């Protein structure tokens, strides 16, 4: 390959214009000059120099392209962050308006109640009006300071800023006016930096460090009703309150300090995740944190029936989810009626125990606390359905084989039998076990029911035709009728156990 062919193949870029030089050499002119040279040695030197120039400019070109790509990605990322933060700002403004409207409504209701009480006092001749007016003025000032939404604390960390979700109206959050004591706001609000929360999250193995951190925080006048405003770190999730955080790391000493500081025991985390909207007691029960459950109930005086989760589950449901027999037994000793409580889907604690696969809890509920063996949820499914659907062979064995639970509950065209569920799920072991204990499919159950009804009707018709004249006479015929009627009722009642 000669030098002319060599330069035609290479993607030679145009030479830049250099101000220090008075001339600009074009590529074609350069090639013409090279072609005019007769000295091969000079041509080779010029070709080598051109190769170096091309490599240098190619490297610079690639570097510039990579830099431009990185800048473009950074620009897109910054634009995305700006969009998210602008949306969060709009939501925070709506949140402020929501808190303000609730605050105004509560102030109006309180002022109207106090006006009524002051009028009644005036009519009775008591001279208390002056003092009640002064108290109203003091309370108004306190309310203005206490219920003001702290936007500065929300926007303190723009990188990790996350908007709190709108509080659920149906959740038992205490009123910020009626429950405020010692000028402390019992509603959660974002505060504290990432270092504070991350120390708590990573301090499960070093509880003394967390306890010392929280002790210093309260000694400086910190508010116990603050929430985490950064991403989830280990078990301490985004939006958790301080009381939720110390429960998540199971630090009993720190929990004592938070309770003594006046933390709200019925507050929900500031999160958009429905499954995380748990009160401190429900969270402790769900984690199987016995010391925390006991401390919250004994120190806080919590009404267990009023503690419900996002799906309507009680603290006993939450304890069953943890699988902690100790926590379950403790809650049952306080209120055994929780066994009959259901969640929004109509599932009892026995249903939950069949989901988690804890045969010991099932025995505890049925044998020791006399719970119903086959309660139905809103769809009509029993705990046995739940055990089969969740592939819990040990639970199926406990229910049917040991506790004698009826193996064929179903609702025609609505709820299949447990055997149908096991077949549809390909659970061969459960299918074989249920078959041994007399389980049937829905078709088999319907066929057997039809056969029994037809045989019963033929029995009654045969009796009346065969008895002839004697059917109307004699006490023996009446006895036979009673016997047949009793026997038929027993057959109908016990058919499915045959």
Automatic annotation (TrEMBL):
Show the segment(s) annotated as Disordered.
444-472
Record SUPFAM superfamilies = Ankyrin repeat
Q: Superkingdom, according to UniProt?
A: Eukaryota
**Known Pfam families for this protein?**
Ank_2 (PF12796)
Q: Where are the ANK repeats?
A: 311-343, 379-400
Key word Repeat present: yes
Which keywords label this protein? ANK repeat, Repeat
PANTHER family on file: ANKYRIN REPEAT AND PROTEIN KINASE DOMAIN-CONTAINING PROTEIN (PTHR24198), ANKYRIN REPEAT DOMAIN 55 (PTHR24198:SF188)
Q: What is this protein called?
A: Ankyrin repeat protein
What is this organism's lineage?
Answer: Eukaryota, Fungi, Fungi incertae sedis, Mucoromycota, Mucoromycotina
